[in-house]
Fold this sequence. Notes:
By secondary structure, chain A is α/β, with parallel strands linked by helices. In chain A, 44% of the residues lie in helices and 16% in strands. Helix content of chain B is 35%, strand content 15%.
Amino acid sequence: MVGNKACATGVKLARVQVASAYPITPQTTITQYLSEMHANAEFDFDFVNVEGELTAQLIVQGASRVGARTFTCTAGPGLLYMHHPMQETGTWRLPVVMAVVHRGYKGMMPDHSDLMSQQWTGWIHWYVEHAQEILDTALMAYKIAEDMRVRIPVAFGYDGYVLSYTAEPVEIPDQETVDAWLPPNKPYPSILPDGYDARKFMMELMEMLGAGDPQNAWKTHHEAILGSEQVLRETMDSFEKTFGRRYGNGMIETYMMEDAEAAIVAMGTIAGSTRSAVDRLRSEGKKVGLIKLRSFIPFPETDFKEWAEKVDAFAVVDRSICPGKGGPVFNKLRSTLYNVEERPDILQFHAGLGGKEVRIGDLCNVGEKALKVVQGGMVESLVEWV
Amino acid sequence: MSERMIRSQIPLEERSLSPGSACQGCGAALAARLAFKALGPNVIRLMIPCCPDTMTNNPLVVGVFEGGGAHLSGISRGLKAINRSDVTAVGFFGDGGTYDIGMQGLSAAAERNENILVITKDNEAYMNTGNQRSGSTPQYAMTSTNPIGPKSRGKARPKKNIPLIFAAHYVPYVATASVAFPEDLIAKVSYAKEVEGFRLIVIQSPCPVGWRYSPEKTIEVSRIGVQSGVWPLYEVIDGDKFKLSYKPKELKPVSEYIRYQARFRHVTDVEVAEVQKRATSNWEQLLRSDELGRLFI
Ligand SMILES: Cc1ncc(C[n+]2csc(CCOP(=O)(O)OP(=O)(O)O)c2C)c(N)n1
């Protein structure tokens, strides 16, 4: 099953009620799969084929407001076009779920600059590695977004082409199991006119959004996103109990980290390639492991602080860059570890931008450079373009 | 088509929450007050940035300026998904949100025949932000972005014919209304509430501040706008069936309408003649349509 089909299948299993999207490569086939599911009445949902991404985001925002479970998806430029209503979906704390099939801006091939550019919209941001994880993540996204302790929209990204159009084996859970694990969404607060009381509604809304002033609303929003970390960890446990699969603790997933001296930090499909690189390095006796970053927002600060006690260097592979400012994962990790007792070395690698190929050999070099730093060797620069 | 109403049929119950924060003589506040009387309680209202006319005692969703039609479609789709299509999704937007920034999404909503009711209070400029021109500003009107000077005679081009643009989407219902004709306005809103599919009602809503006349003249100004054919009242069903709601034997000259408003203070006789010519030709087209009972474009 290709990544986009896994995504559409997740949407179906989650019993989404209203979906809306506008085609853009490499997301396009999701809109086609959903259109087919709708035409063939594969499940009871409404799919709105719209005239642009701005509308797609607004359709799900409006439908979510009255309590429907909603889904939208886009890529690269489409995501930028959605920016303003995304901000509103975040502000009103609507449990919308969106798949972002990464597409870069300099050329059409994938990098993470699309989703990374939306950091300020007040959503939860996850990055996904393979087709099975796409399907599973879609289910988990609703569970977390709709949790009364969270009520935050979730965007999960996966690399275009490499994942969207590439077939991998995917295990499809059965509908009854999903239904039992994922109960229907409850609107909160209810905006329906029945016995509508403007005062009560405003009180409930204000309590959720942070009463008082706009600054307090930002604070409440920020804290709700931070709080989703705990819910994600719990959800990963219950997901494993029900479906028999897990992705680390939800925030990060580690590979060969037990005795590692250096860690490569990577996201999405590059994390997949890094597993092979780690295998190769290990076969040569080099103690390098992988920390796959799943949740960029909220950022797994506790996890990294713990790992910082055990490894001496982190090699961060950033698949996006804020020009003039640098790689977002690198910058965030470095600030996270600023206050730890013994600061590890943190190396920045810019890789896979605009879909530039990242080979196993490249990632082995990343690991080796990190080991060299650990062993006190000299390197020319802590920043490298792979 | 809507049924004729008499004044005593206008619902007594007020939905407007007072005190409002509208200016004295605000046409849009009156439009809201009348429209929501007709709509009653079973609605969800979408508000986008515009003048704070009248807040009503209805569930209120606040959304982005550019997204009126699109957002309202989502609310309506959501209501259908939760089996609550009995609730009407109503947008009460300004002309900026309708003619300009929200046009793409609104046109697409019309093309998909979304089950929404859009009411536009047309005050012919961006009044909330201080009377800047919009796609609805009439020709020669002075606005804060069309000042008069050696290179400017006010707005250079006529306003878009938004009701007919939407009629050309073949939607179930398009109508124009005016705050000077409250029975007609309420009749149209009441009718539209029961129609399924895309409905647009554009209400002429004079703004004393932007149009520059004294606040007690709001009804006079709107009435003469209708009587002079500048703001014809009509209904179009499915982009086809057509009816004029108000048909004077003879139109008043547009100069009478223009004279009231200092936004046209600078206008010359030649310019008035040009405005008159367009108003007359539009009126002839609508009269012809009315005779045929079909929109004749
Ligand atoms: C995306 C965006 N652009 C600009 C604005 C600023 N803005 C707020 S209201 C408004 C004008 C509204 O005009 P109109 O829709 O005609 O309503 P009115 O104020 O006349 O009632 C503008 C330009 C905004 N809020 N959002």
